[in-house]
Amino acid sequence: MPPRPVVPDVLQQKIFRGTTVVRAGLLTANQLRGPAWRRLFPDVYAHVELPLTHSLRALAAARLVVPGSVVTGRSAAGLWGVDLVDAFDDVELTVSPSRHAVRTAGLRVRRARLDPAHVTRRQGMPVTSAGATAVRLAGLMAGDEAVVAVDRLVATGHVRLHVVRDLAARADGAHSARARAACALADGHAESPQETRLRLLIRRSCLPAPVAQHRVALPGRVARLDFAWPDRKVAVEYDGLWHAEDGQFARDRKRLNELHAAGWRIVFVTAGDMHRPEELIARIAAALAQDAVVR
User: Fold this and answer.
1) Total-model pTM
2) Which CATH number is associated with domain 193-294?
3) Is 255 exposed, middle or buried (0-12, 13-18, 19+ CB in 10 A)?
4) Residue among 30, 33, 26, 25 nearest 12 (CA)
5) What is the residue extent of each domain of the chain?
């Protein structure tokens, strides 16, 4: 059997510059090229058993490739718990306008002036605040996905929607108008990206505006409905995969039966329905019309 690779304890949980550890005598150049080490960027390595994530690459980039930079955009969103990038997607960093442009494979380095009040630290990295990240994404992304990103960041609890909107109102420069429009459409109530997409679809339709996250008193508890027309007792619920926890299916069925007993009509929406928006809106309209006839 081939000998086990030499793995100094001090390097097992660290990212490091290859030239630095070779110079210090911790590894040889040949050992560094072996299977125990993963190259993240030119001359930047980590132990192969250290989980490869976008955040790890962002840490390597901000600390060793472009020191003094700030993690921004989609990369920053990942640090706030909103996954918009995969491990190997480009890391976005921002440096001051006075610095020279940096061109390295796997990095997207922009030069812009960041307000120090909206730069903080997260997982050991300098990163834009959750609010500033939301505004950046609102201007960077297009259409409904910009609104989805804002709603997801608000849902993390790290920032309030009114703070995001205030930051967007004071933003200037490229895409600031688009950022304000997206932030105005966010509502901060969605519990999933599909709920935001569904709300925007309903908003663009001829349907009356529903109440988001409407609460209904049931025997012994309160149920929340994704979207509801309380005067009609009609609700729309996004129906993702059934929960896998023991007993969850029975609890969901019990909740549905109690809502039906209270006079509510529920229209369930699946991922497939979202690809047929005209049919979906027609089905919701029919439920609202049916209730109006019954009453």
Assistant:
1) 0.86
2) 3.40.960.10
3) middle
4) 26
5) 9-47, 67-185, 193-294
